[in-house]
Amino acid sequence: MQRSTYNVAVVGATGAVGQQMLKTLESRDFPIDQLKLLSSKRSAGKKLYYKGQEYTVEEATPESFEHVHLALFSAGGSVSKLLASEAVKRGAIVVDNTSAFRMDPHVPLVVPEVNESDLNEHNGIIANPNCSTIQMVVALEPIRQQYGLKKVVVSTYQAVSGAGLEAIDEMKEQTQAILNGEQAKAEILPCSGDKKHYQIAFNAIPQIDLFQENGYTFEEMKMINETKKIMHMSDLEVAATCVRLPIETGHSESVYIETNKSGATVQEIKDLLSSSPGITLQDDPDQQVYPMVTTAVGKNDVFVGRIRRDLDRENGYHMWVVSDNLLKGAAWNSVQIAESLVKLNLLAK
Amino acid sequence: MQRSTYNVAVVGATGAVGQQMLKTLESRDFPIDQLKLLSSKRSAGKKLYYKGQEYTVEEATPESFEHVHLALFSAGGSVSKLLASEAVKRGAIVVDNTSAFRMDPHVPLVVPEVNESDLNEHNGIIANPNCSTIQMVVALEPIRQQYGLKKVVVSTYQAVSGAGLEAIDEMKEQTQAILNGEQAKAEILPCSGDKKHYQIAFNAIPQIDLFQENGYTFEEMKMINETKKIMHMSDLEVAATCVRLPIETGHSESVYIETNKSGATVQEIKDLLSSSPGITLQDDPDQQVYPMVTTAVGKNDVFVGRIRRDLDRENGYHMWVVSDNLLKGAAWNSVQIAESLVKLNLLAK
């Protein structure tokens, strides 16, 4: 018999995404029986609140997952690699928000608006895609269904919260230093695991994550490979340039697409997107209505606007896609996957 | 007989670009006989320095241009429309940094690295292109010459100084307010002439200048139309998405191109660009070397990096182009035009 409430563990509860996971579980009133907040040894002992009740964060160990039905992981790839299989071994379904398993052919990579039914193929672990990928595929999927999709060229405008709470602090400290006429210290961005660090305040850094041999960054390759996997289009042409900006939260994307069928009008695409799940259309140039992070942050939807025809190619379109990278890009998509698991009778069955 | 020094007027001397014009004329040791600093009535009376000497800014009138050989205009389109012909009537050559005459078929639109010889066709006025256009065409021209150019898709990351000194102040005030936990006031950006104003601090605004009927902004149409004119390629496919960011000075551009000839290697393009005029190649991913505004500002060159092949199209390439929008994007390109006029014996002949 299907349970009506579930034991849920949040791994990485003290992080930027973990905190949004708790808020989202609360705002969605997810049917939780027992809640466990887990973290690294370093953060263990911290107190967090859920529905007004205090919880002490515990160090995540294999045994932490006894009797857990659903484990939401967002504590870095190494933690997921170490502990996700331990959770599965003990009967939990893992929704993993790191890149550890995303390209594993046995792990579904899911954005519910696009490929919810892939959840049926899970083997214990379900991967939550990269933040910048998620918001893009939500906007692309209705267009793919209606007109077919041939090529995608995306340039991103990404917030520092994607690099964690420490990156937010670094940006704010640098910003204040520069406003004070002082030198800015850079120790984290663009990528804590890389050799050099650059000032993000009042700057644009064309590097997110480490460089790969082909000259693309890992973030760019994530967008390319994950988009193909989620949309089940191994032959889709995708290229990405990922850029970090002095924005606290909210990713924006300038997306150029070529469709298979030519000639759809902008109005037809607007109508299509405005009636598609998870999308809010914000597109009225006369009234200066377009998506911005200042209006998107704190909301679950993907905001799409500035839709216009390419001036040369009959099947070319440009658009501007904005979403909260901690919500639809991470916490909300993970909780949404959990809700889909419940709906599809896949959780604790 | 060719003169060896010239009477020069700078119109809009107190503005963001005007101040850089003075610095650039000084650093280039432009052969000035008499210097006149002109402005609107509002700014007249201000004191500015050139080579250690104090100058009093005068209100620009038709008579201001008597005996002037070279007039550098950067005081807004309406001032240029009113006074450029008055200057020409009195024998001056005008280098105009506004959009007033750029698309006039009788006015050359010049980036010296690309189309210096168009200066020979001038009728008194020479237009300096839009900042975001200039840095892009400098990077594109060597590729066009070697491989032919078919399509350009650009997404920009533009600094607030392109909107003037008041926009810089607004950004700084908003930034400090937000760091203090206060409300940010927006009265200028994205576009002082438009109805609504939005916070630029910690935000990305996909609007620069006013919207046109086709859904593109005027800034985007400037990039599209000016690129075709400067490169003498009316059939070049160009599309642009222009975005304002919380950066004081320095524009960045994510550029996707398709060439006519296929198969050039990244190394061949790097070699080509590193030996081309006005370009500094900064492209070593292993060492995290790529262009950024923090390293480009204050320099005259266009910085190019992150050059890589499109993963799907044989003739597709991506690159990242950064330059100081007040220098190569405005003041330096104008002074460079003036230097070309001297070199080509076109000034005060």
Plain-language structure description:
Chain A is globular, with a radius of gyration of 20 Å. In chain A, the strands form 3 sheets. A 6-stranded parallel beta sheet of chain A has the order 5-2-1-6-7-8, with helices on both faces. With 349 residues, the first copy, chain A, is an alpha/beta fold. The first copy, chain A, has helices at 16-27, 77-89, 112-115, 131-147, 165-179, 218-230, 266-274, 293-296, 327-343, and strands spanning 6-11, 32-39, 47-50, 53-56, 58-59, 70-73, 93-96, 125-127, 149-157, 237-241, 251-259, 279-281, 302-309, 316-323. In chain A, helix 4 (131-147) runs parallel beside helix 6 (218-230) and helix 4 packs across helix 9. Chain A folds into 2 domains: 6-128 and 330-343, 3-Layer(aba) Sandwich (Rossmann fold); 133-324, Dihydrodipicolinate Reductase, domain 2 (2-Layer Sandwich), CATH 3.30.360.10. In chain A, 30% of the residues lie in helices and 22% in strands. At the A-B interface, strand 9, helix 5, strand 10, strand 11 and strand 13 of A face strand 9, helix 5, strand 10, strand 11 and strand 13 of B.
Using CB atoms under 8 Å apart, which protein chain pair has the greatest interface?
A-B, 59 and 59 residues
Strand content of chain A: 15-25%
* Overall body shape of chain A: globular
CATH architecture of the largest domain in chain A: 2-Layer Sandwich
CATH superfamily grouping of the largest domain in chain A: Dihydrodipicolinate Reductase, domain 2
Radius of gyration of chain A: 20 Å
Q: What's the number of domains of chain A?
A: 2
Overall number of strands of chain A: 14
Low-confidence stretches of chain A: none
Sheet with most strands of chain A: 6 strands, parallel
- The CATH topology assignment of the largest domain in chain A is Dihydrodipicolinate Reductase, domain 2
Number of helices of chain A: 9
Label the structural class of chain A: alpha/beta
Strand order of the largest sheet of chain A: 5-2-1-6-7-8
| Oligomeric organization of the protein chains | homodimer
Overall mean pLDDT of chain A stands at 97
